[in-house]
Amino acid sequence: MPCGAGGRVVRALMSLSLSFAAEELLCACDVPHCSQPNCTGKVCFVSKRKEEGTITQHRGCFSQNILEHCQTPVTEQYGMRCCKSRMCNAELEIFLQGEDALGKTPSLPNLLLMIFVPLLALLVLVALTALFCWKVAQHRHKHSDFGDTDLMLKASMVGDSTLEGHDPMATLFAQDLLNDDCTTGSGSGLPFLVQRTVARQITLMECVGKGRYGEVWRGVWHGESVALKFFSSRDEQSWFRETEIYNTVLLRHDNILGFIASDMTSRNSSTQLWLITHYHENGSLYDYLQRTALDVETCLGLASSIICGLVHLHVEIFGTQGKPAIAHRDLKSRNILVKSNRQCCIADLGLAVMHSQGSDYLDIGNNPRVGTKRYMAPEVLSEQIRTDCFESYKKTDIWAYGLVLWEITRRTVVNGIVEEYRPPFFDAVPSDPSFEDMKKVVCVDQQTPVIPNRLFSDSVLSALAKIMKECWYQSPSARLTALRIKKTLKKLNNSVEKPKAEQ
Length: 503
Description:
Distance between the termini: 132 Å
Shape: elongated
Strand order of the largest sheet: 6-7-8-10-9
Structural class: alpha+beta
């Protein structure tokens, strides 16, 4: 380089340095070595660095190497900008290559857009959901409106208050809810939002049953009788389990007790657990058999309807409107209700277990209560049951069904003879048998209820006696399935009905 040119460059650099030295600038400072929020130097700067995906930005001042630092090009990883006026770097911004300028504080219009656009989208979604639910409700309840104030009634004991409002449309609505298979069959009952309302619309009339679990009352809901089961606090898990199953599983079936609603209320500073179902004035099969002697046709009808309900529980139904397989685990005559047409429906799912083949998940629930000792299968009493196998639970239901069948056939008239009602093993154990009592009779002595000889003089009852025996095998795998029993009883029904048709 010519000496003259080199001299001119040196003089320019010295001139630039002198010009910066002429004035100390006050700059914003947030670098780690700054003890104050500002510093003094010859030039202010803002720098930005990207390391491992994290971007850090600092502001400060330089006292030397000005050109070296300020002329550094901005890259994807590092960049710097300088300025030379008082606090000029306080608002100075820098963006790395490829960095979006969204880091800037948004303007008011942009801020409003950011807030209101998502909010508007959410409101539209809620409106569409509400419209869809309303359409479904209209389809199910053509004559109703859930907003009807006449429906907002309060549950009360008799004498406290009476049902308010007698609007014909409200009465029609109540009848629809009680009778419509799509809403209150024994499926999932009413929607959750409606269930708590229904629970407060019921007037309690009379207590129709008591037990260790609590009480059952007859109530009136818009002129229709319903059953209200009140669970004791120690049986809370049974209430929770029944509510869970009824609300999540499609159980609609003529031979499963129809579910309406479930609620938890507070009364006199104590918690009440309610389960509201269809009401059947004949009561339980246990009560019905106490006071009623049966003919062969009625006996067969009761037995067939119970097994139909049990098959529906045991079988898994696939599809969007399906259900998992369910084992009852506490089948007995007290947990079976007799309808006005002398068909039965199975109740009390507080101990039920569910199983789905798709996930192979066995849902046992969280209920410490065990079944009724008198109806326990040998493998339960001996504690040999495979608790990880769903089929094991189904086999215990079959054992119990055989005992219920025995109760029914004992109360069936044959040649003018009928026995008084007695529970299974009445002649072998006390009225309230212990676990050890039942274990000795069923497991050690391997006894089964005595089948009356008179049953073998009738072809239908003789066939029922054979089914009982095949329900009582000590080995669970040897017992009949619910589906096999249902098919056998269907053939029996056809054999009974055929001679009638020919007459």
